[in-house]
Amino acid sequence: MLRITFLGTGGSTPTPNRNPSAIAVNREGELMLFDCGEGTQRQMMRAKTGMAVRAIFITHFHADHVLGIPGLLQTMALQGRKEPLEIFGPRRVDKFLYHLLSLGYIGKGFEVKAIELEPGSVVRRDKYSIKAIKTEHNVTSIGYVLEEDMRPGRFNRDRAIELGLKPGPLFSKLQSGHTVTVNGREIRPEQVLGPPRPGRKIVYTGDTRPCASVVEASRDADLLIHDGSMSEEVKQYAIDYMHSTAYEAAEVAKQAGVRRLILTHISARYSDLESAARLEAEAKQVFENVEVAKELMTVEVPYRDR
To answer: Is 0.85 surpassed by the pTM of this model?
Structure first.
């Protein structure tokens, strides 16, 4: 399972229809947050994601991306959390956390660790990794790539039987990449497995202008979640404040060859459904498989064969 829940899809100003930025990612039961705008804990309750968050990944320190952290930590403490929580972010995330925890009542009862990242930093997990990438905003910022390890190829059951194996534990060992012995003869995984298959790959940009580093990092991604704050008619505003238009985000998706694009960080000027549909229509001129994120929208990212 790789499930993304859009907890906050709005820009700097909250609206009745959109909370500030926050995305929950559940990978095989491991929950993490990417950005944590104000009200995130309430959105998590509404979405029923649970609050057993292992880590929070911050793209930058603008208020609409971090103001939900104090409330979330307080709620976790009140719920009796004991497990440590990691907060990753760009340069000076340690100072940010120091001032946050100096409020005194936040996060008592469990350890909160700050880990500083820069473009190219990799957080290694079991069977996947999260890499920080360079983005272009008007403050120090990073985006993130979550990419799973390569998976074994498809298991050829008929070939395994031909080689003298019987269905059972030895099948599992071969599928896991281990050589087995049958009647004194070794059988190697490559004899019964097809070519290795890619894991899943998602990219989250946070706030950014379209840039080559995001294009490169997004190559062949299953899902790109990109800043699509506004339409082409106010492109100069996007340039001045270092955001992307929906059309520009679609160009990034096309250049990178991603499979799916979801636009988020939608400006308050597009808070109604009709305006959001206009953004989507602009993006579709360039890249067909695109949609504008909705609050509490959930997306499952499937495996692909190759």
So the answer is: yes
